[in-house]
Amino acid sequence: MDFKFKDRRKFERLIPSLKEVRAFEKEITNSNILGDDFSYFKNILNQIVPTDLTYAGQSMETPFPILYRASSFDVFQKENLSDITTKSFSHPPKQKCTNFQRCNILKYPVLYLAGDIYTAGKEARIQIGQKVYISIWEYPHEIRPKYINFIGEPAPNSTIEYQAHCKAFYQIQEQLITGLSKSKRKSIKMINALVFDLFTKQSNYKWSSALAHIKLYEKEYADILIYPGIASDKQSVCYAIHPKALQTKKLTIKEVWLIEVKDYFRCNEITFDLIKKGIPVKGSDELKWLN
User: Fold this and answer.
1) Per the domain annotation, does 39 fall within a domain?
2) What pLDDT, on a 0 to 100 scale, did the predictor assign at position 232?
3) SS in 3 state form for 40-65?
4) Helix (H/G/I), strand (E/B), else coil: 198
């Protein structure tokens, strides 16, 4: 990962001052806006989080090529098993995106995945004893998706995957701040800490969804946004996937499992019974189900 800037001075001028960053921190802390005025959030974020400060646009080969999604069995209970296809586990259509979520605004869907089954189940609020479909997604080996990394704070007892993304985040940050003035280096570190808080501490999702929309849809057109898993106490990794990553086959379903959750344990461990396994039929969206 090598960041080179032809005009370091121009880049430094893009970085907000400490005063501006502190004003932004106050704005998000005290904001009482609950409406859907996306332009308000977008305007402030574009001022305080310049493109080059978000570590986006990296086409990288990830050491963690398998991702997971949990979908409640109850959602499909009235359907025949033969009617459940790979598309059943994809992102929702835009007309069903009627609420702000952590990484999407109204009518702009993303596919939410997790780095492990435990986190997928927790994020979907799956209870012990409940049946759930686990769709298992993978990156084709020859494709390197573009991603944005917002894993910016070390966490005790975190997964190896979380630690690796956190390490990569700080490596990029060090490259960015090399050669900058002391105040600008401090500004970048403050911005990164604030951005981390947008995804982990804000309850109404307006700030995080606005920033995710800017980075996934408006600016970088990245494939994946990586952020901390809240349901696992910020110890594991979640992913917001742009729909085009599925359309261009940068991410595909490897298998679908129907399981019954037996127990959750600390340190991101889960026990379950495997009931059925669905294998994608080559050249179609169908699944071949095995007992």
Assistant:
1) yes
2) 84
3) HHHHHHHHHCCHHHCCCCEECCCCCC
4) helix
